[in-house]
Design goal:
Blueprint (H helix, E strand, L loop, with lengths): L2 E7 L3 H16 L9 E6 L6 E7 L3 E2 L5 H14 L13 E2 L4 E2 L7 H15 L8 H19 L12 E3 L8 E4 L5 E3 L5 E3 L17 H11 L8 H19 L6 H15 L24 H4 L6 H7 L5 E2 L8
Antiparallel strand pairs: 1-3, 1-11, 2-3, 4-8, 5-6, 7-10, 8-9
Helix pairs in contact: 3-4, 3-6, 4-7, 6-7
Protein name: protein-ribulosamine 3-kinase
GO molecular function: protein-ribulosamine 3-kinase activity
InterPro entries: Fructo-/Ketosamine-3-kinase, Kinase-like_dom_sf
Length: 325
């Protein structure tokens, strides 16, 4: 029997190992055929700054599955899973690469996503310095676009079920098991949320699992109500992922302009925010979710995200290198 050992040597290494272990364990409940079973995680006794994640070893082909192979797995995960608390979040902190995800449980998807977006807005500016234009756009975005696209989920008699999301479903985290010739998903950073969030990295044409898969998923699984907002929601979720990518990989700095353009496009399309949503009664005030981006951009950047970026050295791994975590 062979094993795969991932060694983490960076700030909050133990939390990263725990997050991946708990994420993989959660995924095993619903799609065991596509997950390598986790075995253990822990800290190094002689060097507590290091941590490890242990799993079984699989020989993987560096090739992508077809949509007909991948789609049933993703659909099964989203349709069969449900939050143990009925809320959005996760029971431990998970990491989208270096940056931690605040998974505090909440009844509101708008609040949960706003929290993620606020963190990404800050993280994306760390390697390049404060961007006042981005700060201003971010403030408007939080006040207008996020409520307009997400609040209708849980108003006007509508609701969405928090389902388990892989969290980082993109090309580098999907390969083919050489023994079974079936897809294997790895490097998860799970949370219970809106299932369409798992399509966030697939909007970009730069990814092989891209827009064609998003369309196939929509056609097969359907879109949440309001269905007409599906593409705008996909853009919204993609913006958060792009901001994290820019913060993680400084060479992706040109992507910031794409992010700004998309934010302007959505702001122009939804200038009235939630007041522009006409279908059914709408709750127009939610204090927690409307925290302004000015709370980020109006303060010096010295949060834990700075140290997360500063310590983003490559992981020490056995058997293979990971891209994000």
């Amino acid at each position: 029997m062979e094993f795969f050992l991932k060694v983490l040597d960076r700030e909050r290494a133990d939390e990263m190992a725990l997050g991946e272990f708990e994420s993989s364990k959660a995924l095993m409940q619903y799609i065991p055929e596509a997950i390598v079973p986790p075995i253990a995680w822990g800290r190094y006794r002689e060097d507590p700054t290091k941590a490890f994640y242990l799993t079984h070893f699989r020989y993987l082909h560096e090739q992508l599955p077809t949509s007909s192979q991948l789609l049933p797995i993703v659909q099964k995960l989203h349709q069969s899973s449900s939050s143990p608390t009925g809320k959005f979040g996760f029971h431990v902190t998970t990491f989208w690469g270096p940056p931690p995800m605040d998974n505090t449980w909440t009844d509101s998807w708008e609040e949960y996503y706003t929290r993620k977006f606020r963190s990404a807005l800050e993280y994306g500016q760390i390697p390049h310095g404060r961007d006042e234009e981005m700060c201003e756009l971010g403030e408007q975005f939080i006040q207008k676009v996020i409520p307009r696209l997400l609040r209708p989920f849980q108003t006007g008699g509508r609701n969405i079920k928090p389902t388990l999301c892989h969290g980082d479903l993109y090309d580098a985290n999907i390969q083919i098991d050489s023994a079974t010739n079936q897809p294997v998903l790895f490097d998860p950073c799970c949370f219970y949320g809106h299932h369409e969030m798992d399509l966030q990295s697939m909007r970009a044409a730069r990814n092989a699992v891209g827009p064609a898969f998003v369309n196939a998923y929509k056609n097969e699984a359907g879109a949440s109500e309001p269905q007409e907002d599906f593409d705008d929601r996909n853009a919204l979720y993609s913006i958060r992922g792009d901001l994290e990518t820019v913060g993680m990989w400084p060479q992706w700095r040109p992507l910031l302009q794409t992010v700004k353009d998309e934010m302007r496009r959505l702001l122009a399309k939804h200038p009235d925010g939630i007041d522009g949503f006409k279908e059914g009664p709408v709750v127009k005030h939610m204090t927690q979710a409307r925290s302004s981006a000015a709370q980020i951009c109006g303060q010096p950047m010295h949060s834990s995200l700075d140290s997360a970026y500063a310590s983003a050295s490559p992981l020490l791994t056995v058997a293979q290198a990971e891209t994000r975590s």
